[in-house]
Amino acid sequence: MNKKTALITGASRGIGKAIATLFAENGYNVLINYNNSEKEALDLYNELKSRGFAVDTYKADVSKKEEVNLMVNYCIGQFEGIDVLVNNAGISKTNLFTDISYEEWDEVISTNLNSVFYTTKKALQYMIPQMSGKIINISSIWGMVGGSYEVHYSTSKAAIIGMSKALAKELGPSNIQVNCIAPGVIQTDMLDNIEDDALEALRQETPLMRLGTVEDIANCALFLASDKSNFITGQVISPNGGFVIV
């Protein structure tokens, strides 16, 4: 039985790293995409290879379609297929809406949203003919309910939710499931600049009385990639400890 292959964007740190690690541990071939975090990507690659897992790395700016196309082709060449695409790469910016520059807006939309379009469009060239595939898009609770001082970020993440729902309807006849994970407040380096008292306030606002971990999100992604989720598509799953309930 051939192993399944997962391409994970932004996989060198944080949530992406946790997803890549868990998928490798569960028998997937994993292509670790990175752009700026080369050291972190190579450290992850070396760690997983030393444990006998089938992994590789690829440097690509996923906001550029030419680089995305080459990356997906590389994945096919190395692992002879692509079964799971996890669109995780993204950036977070905080600014008053009136202070957001045109350049900052374009950067957030291009990195967070256009990248999902580029990678998905290319991956579907292989998934549609094989009549199978799993696409998992990482959004955010702020894509569900909006976040002040993060209008551009919230916009990009809300658009990912809309794209996932629409694409799920379109790809259903091809037996391709498209789902969205909208994480809550997760302990990653994105929280490094937040004061301890502010983090404690976030914990207190969370019914489960803790912040999320990257493993919480990775476990959700692994389920959506598995055969256990074959009748689930077009859904938004939000591991957020009850911070947002809709």
From TrEMBL:
<protein>
    <submittedName>
        <fullName>3-oxoacyl-ACP reductase FabG</fullName>
    </submittedName>
</protein>
<dbReference type="InterPro" id="IPR020904">
    <property type="entry name" value="Sc_DH/Rdtase_CS"/>
</dbReference>
<dbReference type="InterPro" id="IPR050259">
    <property type="entry name" value="SDR"/>
</dbReference>
<dbReference type="Pfam" id="PF13561">
    <property type="entry name" value="adh_short_C2"/>
</dbReference>
<keyword id="KW-0443">Lipid metabolism</keyword>
<keyword id="KW-0753">Steroid metabolism</keyword>
<dbReference type="InterPro" id="IPR036291">
    <property type="entry name" value="NAD(P)-bd_dom_sf"/>
</dbReference>
<dbReference type="InterPro" id="IPR002347">
    <property type="entry name" value="SDR_fam"/>
</dbReference>
<comment type="similarity">
    <text>Belongs to the short-chain dehydrogenases/reductases (SDR) family.</text>
</comment>
